[in-house]
Fold:
Amino acid sequence: MGDHAVGMTLTAAVCAALVARARTGKGQLVSTSLYRQGAYTVSFDLNTFLLSGHSIAIGQRETMGNPCMNNYAAADGRRFWVVGLQAGRHWPPLCRAVGRPDWLTDPRFGTAHSRAANAAELIGELDEIFATQPLDEWAKVFAAEPDFFWAPINSIEDVIADEQFHAAGGVVYVPDDDSTVPTVRSCRSATANGFRHRHSFTNFCRSVTLNV
Structure:
């Protein structure tokens, strides 16, 4: 994971250096660091500590202060995230989706503060409700609520079978002697100058190394 992130960072740095050279005629030293990339990846946690002197507490899903921002399991065992960060906006569609519009006027859950105070009870009830149907059925229910934000927690098999993953160019077939082998494409692609093939990309890297 670290190598991939560092590779993307280095690619961006090389591109920036090439633009700077084209504009100023001066080359630049390009460098990166696995350590610094790792620190940047968790920079929210590190910045919180730098600013407050305290580490971020790790909560338990059974008592999350905002039950609308939590993960749940459907009847088939597949898990998903409910992403309801805005209390006023996302609480009503959640109530409608699970068939509990009465919660909107329930004093235990009527406000963000009361939901936080009664989070364990509310999450327990949501767990029971979500366990009544498989995720594919819940997906149909969720689709009827435009302001209900959610996302499945995909397994490796789910990602490979996802039509959107393939439509977005997630897999590329790399030449291997007389055949090709599938591999995950990086999150950037440049095909206009022939970078689609590994040999062209290797030549590009060599030219960058020599000319930056």
In short: Residues 78 and 128 are 14 Å apart (CA to CA). The two ends are 27 Å apart (CA to CA). The domain at 61-153 is CATH 3.30.1540.10 (formyl-coa transferase, domain 3).
